[in-house]
Amino acid sequence: MTQGLIHIYCGDGKGKTSAAVGLAVRAAGCGVKVLFARFLKNEDSGELRILDEIPGIEVIHLERSYGFYSTLSEYEKEEAGQLYGGLWLNILEKTGTGDYGVLVMDEFMAAYNYGLIEPEAAISFLREKPKGLEVVLTGRNPDDRLVELADYVSEICKVKHPFDRGIRARRGIEY
Question: Which of 17, 37, 61, 114 has its CA 20 to 30 A from that of 10?
Answer without folding.
Answer: 61
